[in-house]
């Protein structure tokens, strides 16, 4: 007999959220290569943000230098976190397989994942806050009302129109 958790709907929501976060994290990790060796998607994303900050927000040359420093620091900080997630994912899959993909094993694996996902999400949002802190008061208003647009694009076509 299979043990079914009482809060299966809540667990399903947690699984979906974690899956989306994992996919986003892995996409970021695999699209960002150290030493400037970016895949096309990563370059497009970086160029899209840079274009957004220049064109839409009106960053000065000095602000762009600070932004470049923040990006480099963020990549250094996030690299080890994504490597840790990659290793933990393998451990979770082995653990779940060891217990025949039982619901209790899946729940246990999810509970171990949540804290690291929260750390990564927090660091990413704090990075956006750091970028916002580069803005002057007028730029902050523009940033606050339009930053979500840069992340809602499915592909680079809308960004290219802006350039």
Task: Describe it.
- The structure is a single chain.
- Helices cover 82% and strands 0% of the residues.
- Residues 35-40 and 155-163 have low confidence and may be disordered.
- Helix 1 (8-31) packs across helix 3, helix 1 (8-31) packs across helix 4 (103-134) and helix 3 runs antiparallel to helix 4 (103-134).
- It has helices at residues 8-31, 40-57, 61-98, 103-134, 137-152, 157-162.
pLDDT below 50 for ≥5 consecutive residues: which ranges? 35-40, 155-163
Strand content: under 5%
SSE ordering = HHHHHH
Number of helices: 6
Task: State the secondary-structure class.
Answer: mainly alpha
How much is the average pLDDT? 80
Name the helicity range.
Answer: over 70%
Find the count of extended strands (DSSP E, 2+ residues): 0
- Largest β-sheet summary: none
Radius of gyration based on Cα positions: 19 Å
Tertiary shape = elongated
Spatial separation of the terminal alpha carbons: 59 Å
């Amino acid at each position: 007999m299979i043990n079914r958790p009482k809060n299966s709907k809540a667990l399903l929501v947690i699984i979906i959220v974690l899956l989306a976060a994992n996919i986003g994290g892995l996409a970021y990790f695999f699209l960002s290569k150290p030493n400037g060796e970016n895949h096309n998607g990563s370059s497009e994303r970086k160029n899209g943000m840079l274009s957004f900050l220049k064109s839409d927000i009106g960053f000065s040359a000095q602000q762009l230098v600070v932004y470049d420093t923040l990006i480099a620091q963020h990549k250094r900080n996030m690299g080890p976190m994504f490597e840790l997630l990659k290793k933990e994912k393998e451990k979770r899959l082995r653990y779940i397989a060891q217990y025949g993909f039982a619901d209790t094993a899946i729940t246990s694996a999810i509970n171990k994942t949540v804290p690291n996902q929260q750390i990564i999400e927090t660091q990413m949002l704090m990075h956006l806050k750091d970028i916002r802190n580069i803005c002057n008061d007028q730029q902050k208003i523009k940033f606050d009302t339009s930053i979500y647009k840069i992340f809602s694009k499915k592909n680079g076509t809308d960004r290219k129109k802006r350039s």
